[in-house]
């Protein structure tokens, strides 16, 4: 068996990197058909190494530190954290920066493995606002970053990264230390017993199996912070990136907020249209999301490769869960008080006559967010193959 033989896993998940480490996405149609919330069984997993083994009876005794540039450094257990701080619950979509990398690898091989368009999932996360804990430790003058480290032991140390301290201190960013997903204890693959959740940013910043929080004046010097989750300029190929480490040291190339993105769940890539049904209509549907809490403001479909566009209908996860505001759900107050802030994917749909679909070669989709960030027609290729967000395309296949 692998080092993860203690971890239960769903056979429907598609393995992207062999047997170990565990990196999986659900079939896109199954993921989409679950609705806004993903069940823990189908939630995508991105592990760099073996999953730390934590027994249920040891969850509350798990300890992590708050150290570095703080007046009151501390070691705190999950038990103390949950006893001393109020908890909140809200829905967050986590997205791997490699979502849709397969399309990039088809154009030119990047250094990453081929995610389809299901490298994302949504859960109601419950935990303590990280702001509260950091405030409690009292950051010192000159502190600018919060570094995070997990318990996983990897070839280049433990997995770690950092975010800006002023993001952590901004309540509208919703950064939390989560111990539950959809009302249950975190599953081992998702950070049991405790993880960071950074809404609106790439999943790579949401450190699992949290062991250390270090307040610093400079960004993390962890290997994974430097050599992962970056978009180097497009002319930097794998050779150049290996020859010249200076490319990796430029913090401007680190990625944080998600980019505006969307994908088509129906029709699936291999779906075949029945020519008998030409007089009927077919509902084209899929998802869209953006970064930094920005709301998706439109989703458009084209049947003629961008010459003309149709406006799709959009439904927001936030609108659904707003109805439960202030209810005691899952042991934490469901807090939707940021109103227009969107930390979740939205679903779009549009009925189209099958005859019209059959006249087209393909369907493309693009989304736009409240800052007018719109998905580009052309792909931006980079050496790690990240944040691919060009128009998503599905070919139309007709029954022969
Ligand atoms: N945290 C630790 N400790 N180790 C990891 O390998 N992977 C990161 C992040 N946090 C990782 C981690 C990456 S790249 C992503 S996309 C998310 O976790 C994935 O979270 P999930 O597996 O719960 O979906």
Structure description:
The chain is of the alpha+beta class and 400 residues long. The protein has two domains: 14-51 and 58-253, Sulfite Oxidase, Chain A, domain 2 (Alpha-Beta Complex), CATH 3.90.420.10; 261-398, Immunoglobulin-like. Helices cover 14% and strands 32% of the residues. It contains nine helices and 25 strands. It has helices at residues 28-33, 78-84, 101-107, 130-137, 165-168, 223-227, 238-243, 317-322, 354-359, and strands at residues 14-15, 23-25, 45-46, 63-68, 74-77, 88-95, 120-129, 145-154, 157-164, 176-181, 184-185, 195-197, 210-216, 261-266, 272-273, 281-289, 296-302, 310-311, 313-316, 328-329, 332-334, 346-353, 362-369, 392-395, 397-398. The strands form six sheets. Strands 6, 7, 10, 11, 12, 20 and 21 form a seven-stranded mixed beta sheet that branches. A five-stranded mixed beta sheet has the order 5-4-13-8-9. It has a four-stranded antiparallel beta sheet with strand order 14-16-22-19. The protein is globular, with a radius of gyration of 21 Å. It binds ligand MTE. The site of ligand MTE has 19 residues, from strand 3 and strand 8. Homodimer. Nitrate reductase is a key enzyme involved in the first step of nitrate assimilation in plants, fungi and bacteria. This is Nitrate reductase. Mo-molybdopterin binds at residue 96.
